[in-house]
TrEMBL record:
It is a multi-pass membrane protein. InterPro entries: EGY1-like, Peptidase_M50. It comes from Glycine soja. Belongs to the peptidase M50B family. This is Putative zinc metalloprotease EGY2, chloroplastic. Residues 280-442 form the Peptidase M50 domain. Pfam families: Peptidase_M50. PANTHER family: ZINC METALLOPROTEASE EGY1, ZINC METALLOPROTEASE EGY2, CHLOROPLASTIC-RELATED. The keyword Plastid applies. It is found in: Plastid, Chloroplast membrane. It comes from the Eukaryota. GO terms for cellular component: chloroplast membrane.
């Protein structure tokens, strides 16, 4: 049996070692590890005594400090590389043995001091936010979280009734706490946030997230100074206005077929752009209602949105708008409300105008002449056309329709591509709100891959996948509380948005043939 005793300096005391596991070997090896500052101190003698006890067998060990008079000899021996032999100590009296509980207390005390030292080493952390989707801020000096603050967070802010902390790690601008979540996440978050505000005011921000490594709840506390919104060199309104003007031009251009075949001739025939004004207004109306839905839902939930950047497209007029969320969203249900409100509003108006286009005759009696096969490009448009037009819709037959159908269809398509579950698109935020961050990342990867394959056959898909990859692939900024699932009615709304996007984008697979009734 080998016994190793680690001590930062010479130690006077007794060590009690149970021998319940020793049967045949009674070989003892006492090793005393000295710290750098005490390398000249050596124990002058040691003694061991086997104590017979009817209940347990122990060895009592006694170690004493060296006499002051022998210090010079030891120093000389150290210089010469010699080792002084231990003097016989058999005549010395052996102090009474110390119980094992005292040794455990001594060990726990040293462990506590070591933990404090480790915490002191990790108090100074790098500046910037560690959370996904939040860009680091350039601060003048590194952020320091005092040890006292961490202890207050562990013992007074968190607790058995909310989140029982088992460990903590430095997390760049703050601290990540691991532990056990007690009760409902939303209620626990409210309690912890109130205690945090009572103790520190608005100095720190709490996040209750899901650890992607083990899917367990974690709490992150970061200084609010790391969460300031990012500023841009160009004023936001100026950039958004510039994109908006280009989008107006592409909306007009898209509704003038004669100019689409020769884009360079547009500048020589600007007067023809006025012919595309009705179609541009209808599509722009659907886009405007879409963005209005976002802003109304954001106002209701306390979410702050930035100025929308409308993205121009000469294929369909516009790819919609990129709208930034400028503050931290409270929870997944609020994110779902904001993200789904825009597409729901856009789909509602677009479907209404599409139905009116199929029902109302063209104002000039001619309308737009298209081949019936065009309705194979959308499952939703093709299904509605087959339902309302019936046998008039035949393969290889040209039909005259109200141009309102084409205009409304373009608005529905813009809503649909924004409903793709990828990145920070409306669909990406909806999938995040419905199924969490990890599922959202998987949806993003699959969607980008499918769009990449589709781009080989469709130029709209090519430009859209480029836009998502460089501007909208995420990650989505963290929510204050990401654990609680949304309510059932909001889940139904989110799933409806995703399904409508699929119906608009997927082709109509059934042939347009004349149906005959067979009597038996």
């Amino acid at each position: 049996m080998n016994l190793s005793l680690a001590a930062p300096s010479a130690f006077r005391g007794n060590l009690l070692v149970p021998l319940s596991r020793c049967t045949s070997c009674l070989e003892l090896d006492l090793r005393i590890q000295h710290s750098e500052g005490f390398r000249h101190l050596r124990p002058r003698w040691s003694s061991f005594k086997l104590i017979r006890n009817p209940r347990r067998r122990v060895i009592a060990c006694s170690v004493t400090e060296p006499h002051n008079g022998s210090d010079e000899k030891e120093k000389e021996a150290d210089k010469n590389g010699e080792t002084l032999p231990l003097e016989d100590s058999s005549e010395q009296s052996i102090p009474p043995p110390v119980d094992a509980e005292q040794i455990n207390e001594f060990s726990d005390e040293n462990k506590g001091q070591s933990d404090v030292q480790n915490m002191d080493d990790s108090n100074e952390v790098a500046s910037g936010s560690p959370l996904p989707g939040v860009k680091p801020q350039k601060l003048d000096e590194a952020i320091k979280i005092p040890k006292e603050t961490i202890e207050i967070l562990k013992n007074q802010v968190f607790g058995f009734d909310t989140f029982f902390v088992t460990s903590q790690d430095p997390y760049e601008g703050g601290v990540l706490f691991k532990g056990n979540l007690r009760g409902q996440a939303a209620k626990s978050y409210d309690k912890i946030s109130k205690r945090l505000k009572d103790k520190f005011g608005d100095e720190y921000k709490l996040f209750l997230l899901v650890n992607p490594e083990d899917n367990m709840p974690v709490a992150v506390v970061v200084p609010r100074t790391t969460l300031q919104p990012e500023t841009t060199a160009v004023p936001e309104w100026f950039a958004a206005g510039s994109f908006g003007l280009v989008t107006v031009f592409t909306l007009l251009l898209r509704n003038v077929p004669s100019l689409q075949s020769d884009l360079l001739s547009t500048f020589d025939n600007l007067n023809l752009l006025k012919d595309g004004l009705p179609g541009a207004l209808v599509t722009a109306l659907i886009l405007g209602v879409h963005e209005l839905g976002h802003f109304l839902a954001a106002k209701d939930t306390g979410v702050k949105l930035g100025v929308p950047y409308f993205v121009p497209s000469w294929q369909i007029g516009s790819f919609g708008a990129i709208t930034r969320i400028r503050n931290i969203v409270p929870n997944r249900e609020d994110l779902l409300k904001v993200a789904a409100a825009g597409p729901i509003a856009g789909y509602a108006l677009g479907l209404l105008l599409l139905l009116l286009g199929f029902i109302l005759p063209p104002s000039d009696g001619i309308g737009v002449v298209v081949d019936a096969s065009v309705f194979h490009e959308s499952f939703l448009a093709g299904g509605i056309a087959k339902l309302l037009l019936g046998n008039v819709l035949k393969e290889g037959t040209a039909i005259s329709i109200n141009p309102l159908v084409i205009w409304a269809w373009a608005g529905l398509l813009i809503n649909a591509i924004n409903s793709i579950p990828a990145g920070e698109l409306d669909g990406g935020r909806i999938s995040f709100a419905l199924w969490g961050r990890k599922a959202s990342l998987r949806f993003t990867g699959v969607s980008i891959a499918l769009l990449g394959v589709s781009s080989l056959l469709n130029d709209v898909a090519f430009y859209w996948v480029v836009l998502i990859f460089f501007l909208q692939r995420g990650p989505i900024a963290p929510l204050s509380e990401e654990i609680t699932d949304p309510g059932e009615k909001y889940v139904a709304i989110g799933v409806t948005v995703l399904l409508l996007g699929l119906l608009v984008c997927l082709p109509y697979p059934f042939p347009f043939t004349e149906e005959t009734l067979t009597s038996f």
